[in-house]
Each structure stands twice: as structure tokens, then as C-alpha cells.
Amino acid sequence: MLDINIWNFIWAGINLILLLILMKIFLFKPIRKMMEKRTQMVQEELDSAKRTREEAEQLREQYDNELGSAKDEAQKIIDKAHEDAETERAAIIKRSQEEAERIVADAGKTIENERKRVIAQAQTQIADLAVEAASRIIGENVDDEKNRRLVDKFLEEEEGISR
Fold first, then answer.
1. Is the pTM of this model over 0.85?
2. Most CB within 10 Å of its CB: which of 5, 138, 140, 147?
3. 53-110 pLDDT, tens per residue?
4. DSSP per-residue codes, 102-114
5. Are 151 and 131 a contacting pair, CB within 8 Å?
6. Is the dihedral of CA 48, 49, 51, 56 positive or negative?
7. How is the chain split into domains, by residue range?
């Protein structure tokens, strides 16, 4: 049945060893080189991806810093505008109050001047009436200038008492 031939085993062993040596030289070395190149390429891609990620992180941090600075600057501008608006509002209110006070003072002066004018006019009319009445009562025309001074003096005394 089975016949074992030792030479067949030896030749099979030699063939197997020879096959392993040839495979190592022609198959395993190129595959190992290819695997090393592939490993090196993958490592380079990983390193490149890591550098790109770090650069992106730095850019994001720079963007965040610039965005924060821009927000701070915008807030400063808004605050300045509010301050300017408040200052302008206060100045407008102050000018309006000063203008109102001036108008009231001018109106008071005008009223006082008009009151004095009306009183003077009334005194003149009263003096004229008093002189004319006295002239009719006395029946003769007394010195007009002297009578007017007497009536003015009387009216001034009456005005001083009534105040």
C-alpha cells in the first residue's frame, strides 16, 4: 500500500527549502518593501493630517480671537455712540431750558415794560382829566405845567401806597 521512499522525502524537503528560499527572495522581500512603503506613506498621510488639523486649530483660535476683538470693538463703538447720544440729548435739553428761561425772562420784561407804559399812559390821562376837571371847577385855566406836576406827584404817592 503505502510505500515510503526516503529519497522522495529528502527531495521533497530540498524542494520545500528551495521553494522557501526563492519565495523569500522573490516574494517576501518585495512584499515587505511594498508594505514598508505603504506603511511609510500612511504614516506621512497621518502626519500631514495631524499638521493640517493643528493648522486648522490655530486658524480657528486666531479666528476666535479676532472675532472676540471685533465684538469688543463693536461694543466699544456702541457704547461710545450711546454716550455721544446721551451727551447730545443733555446738551439739547440744556439749550432748550436756557431758551425757555430766556423767553420767560424776555416775556417778563416785556410785560413789565407794557405795564409801566400802560400806567404812565393812564397817569397821563388821569392827570389830563384831573387838570381839566379842576379847571372847570375853578373856572379858569391854571398853569398847565404846574397842575400836571401836582397830579403826577399825587399819582406817584398813591402808587407807592397801593404797592
1. no
2. 147
3. 999 999 999 999 999 999 999 999 999 999 999 999 999 999 999 999 999 999 999 9
4. HHHHHHHHHHHHH
5. yes
6. positive
7. 6-162
